[in-house]
Amino acid sequence: QPLRGPAREAAVKRFRQLFDSDALLKAFVAEVSTFCEGSSKESLPGVFLEWASTGLTQKHVVLDEATCMRVEVGDALALAVFESVFLGGPRSPPGEMYRGEEISKLFVPGLSGGGGGEAEDERRIEASRKERLARLVRYLLTPAVRVMKPVEASDEEAKPPTPPPSFSVPALGQVRLRVSTAGPIGRVLCPEDLHDWALVTVKVDGCYRLPTKLQEAGGPLPEGAEGLVEGHPLSYSLRLLGCKFNGGQLFMPKAPPAPVTEDAEAAEAAPGAAGEDAEGDEAGTTPQESPRPEFTIDVGQEEFVECLTRAGYEAATEDGPAVFEFLSRPSTGMGGKIGRPEFLRLEEVPAIADSAKLLAFRAFLLEKAEGGSLDDAFQVLAESGEQMLTLDGFRAGLERLGYEDIEGADALFEALDAQQLGSISAEDLAVLDLLSRLQAFEDAQKLKDWLLDTCGSVANLQQQADLEKSGAITLEAWKVCVERLGFADGKGEADLLFRFVAADTGSETIEPSALAVLAELDVSSLKQALPAFEAVLLADEGYGADAEAAFDRLRGESEGDSLTLTDFRGACERLQYGSPAAVRLLFAVLDTSGEGCIGLRSVDALCKR
Length: 609
Prior knowledge:
Elements: H1 5-18, H2 21-32, H3 44-55, H4 75-87, E1 97-98, E2 101-102, H5 129-147, E3 176-178, H6 185-189, H7 212-215, E4 227-228, E5 235-240, E6 243-249, E7 251-252, H8 262-268, H9 274-284, E8 294-296, E9 299-300, H10 301-310, H11 316-327, E10 337-338, H12 340-343, H13 355-368, H14 374-382, E11 389-390, H15 391-401, H16 409-416, E12 423-424, H17 430-455, H18 458-465, E13 473-474, H19 475-485, H20 493-501, E14 509-510, H21 523-538, H22 547-555, E15 562-563, H23 565-574, H24 580-590, E16 598-599, H25 600-607
Parallel strand pairs: 3-8
Antiparallel strand pairs: 1-2, 4-7, 5-6, 9-10, 11-12, 13-14, 15-16
């Protein structure tokens, strides 16, 4: 029922209280500040500048002081503009200044667009900003109140109230979202936050149809119109967090299929279509499901590598480009980027056993070889003397030997078949010795860290190892020292550390000063440096390269079948690889036999790592 009397007056008063005049002025200031070359004369910024050219004594006062290249209107001037347009002139008090000029003198007398019916001398009455805003709101809302004033009607002429419009849930639609960045956020915009995630959340509440009157603003739409409607008068623009989205146009989605009529259902129920009809009836009872949104995200190689880095993948810069190249094969035609379909190509990569499972498999093989080498273990696995084993033969051999994790046989085979030939030989098992050697040095480093932490320094450790001050430390004396300090040497870590220090001389004694080499033992750095060594050694041949060519590159002009530490240092210096500490540790890891030399088998294992 319409409000009358005191109730109506109270409602009008309350509405005036809720009207946010400050928000109105700030919205006006924000809108006129968007003026640019593309702004039309009919837009609010265009109309405002045209008004300012005749309504202000100094037109440049609406531009920024520094460059005069953009519109900049302060709150005080904005309020005076509204008063001039709607109340017949500014109501600013005498002496109120704006950029060094009295506000009242910035407006041309007699050219204001409005007229509140107040005398000229009332404009200069001293009034607070709150009172001025209240006067402005009172004028702005008065016409609206008049329009909304209910018409008094007699009981005979009273009509039943119009029922509220009914709302029906629109047909389910589909929306495609594309979220992307102009460049890698972390590295370009805020490198100090490179390892932080930049999270973008997109929520879709629904996909709805525009009102018919807006759709037909330029006349009835063509029958079955789909896609962008050229020439339609409706356009829109958005401003969000300082970003502008201009030039929005009407876009008609693909029309849904026509509903099945009763005649069509009867036709489907004809003989020969009974099964289809029954299936259709069953489908008709299923509630309509909301379609899943389709998300399209494209990333380039730099973004891909950066994502791997943020995810914690240590070898992202070394492995990332190769993985990206694999995913983008052949050319995706997307400007050097990959999307979700290309990323799913990772499913094509077979599962490969990790280091822990490979080391457990090595222990199993050596147990079956009864103390022999991995070459002997291969013969036990092959049984009938084959030189090569296919996947089927590999699985059969494991089943015969009683391997428990037979379901992981495929992953083991893929890890050993580095060249993807579909078969493995005894030489392919050499990588297991390399992994075991690397694990042994990781355990030895734990002992080294514990010793230095216990003794406090390398100098103190030297004193503990040479209590008799003989100037020479034997292997037995070293083990006694480690045991006396309280470390249980259960995996041979003490022996490995001693031989690492004595690698230069190969003798059974070392000088106390030689223990300084232990401070440079860092297996984690070696793991990070290995890809660089492989790149130098394997040149452009890549993963699974020919071991003989790689060994020849390392050997240089030497004709020997093996390299000592001195030879290896010379080769690395010639190939311009690594620091002396890194070269020493790398040689010790490649020396899987512990004999003080490396050969073709060690390089072959590295090629298949």
